[in-house]
Amino acid sequence: MSRELRFDFPGLRIGIAEYEEGPTGCTVFHLPPGGAACSVDIRGGSPGTIGNYDWAHAVCFAGGSLYGLEAACGVAAELMAMRGYTVGWTDVELVLGAIVYDFGRRDNAIYPDDALGRKALRAAQEGLFPLGRRGAGRSVTVGKTFGLEQGEFSGQGGAFRQIGPTKLAVFTVVNAFGAIVDREGTVVRGHFDPERGTRTPLVEGLEAQLPRTAPGNTTLTLVITNQQLGRRELKQLGVQVHASLGRAIQPFHALVDGDVLYTVSTGEVENEELTSLSLGVLASELAWDAVLSCVDA
Fold first, then answer.
1. What is the pTM of this model?
2. Per-residue pLDDT at 1
3. Which structural domains are found in the chain, ordered by start?
């Protein structure tokens, strides 16, 4: 049964598109009209991105490793078509793109291309985000620290909260080397022993074996708020939230991970009751919720 997050963030439209024969897919975040200020924090040792702007109109997460960056180009092309193919200097929409390696559990070369990026943008709608093995999370896995055979499927997750006039949302695609851990410290996905039917905590696993190289991992995250933030505040918010995800994903930011986090502010409201420091704490907890939501119950 499909799951979804419903949220209230006017102007933010999200669309997914998938190739079932992969299976693989992409997830597109069409930002409010005019675009928004953004910052990027790259922590993984093997990232794959396109675009490095401090202002953007859309963000595209895709499977397919580096080939999947083509989907972001498709989003840009579709945005151009939607505005009637005008080519003025100020007409050009900026698209940020990042990818995950999702070939590990499939034996074909199908990847999210230009056409799929276009399709995802056309499908975008407000207030709805599919959870689990959908969009860019179609074939992602986690918990491969002690071998690929101990990995399990995960997906994409999201969480939303409103504090006064401030809206805050976190969306993530979890394809990590490490396992997903809940707030009680229990591994809920990955490090799976098929013979015993159990999941092993990182510290316990290290007592018996050393980590093994498992290439092709990445967690992609988008933090978005409508609260006004300065450049320094926006950047630090991303750094804080990205670092906090090390509680939910263990281990995290490995050499074989390509972890990327985008922070976006539409700057529509001021909230004297909620400082940027407080916003960082709340967003960090919301990010943990988002990671946990990618796992089917």
1. 0.96
2. 64
3. 3-293 (3.60.70.12)
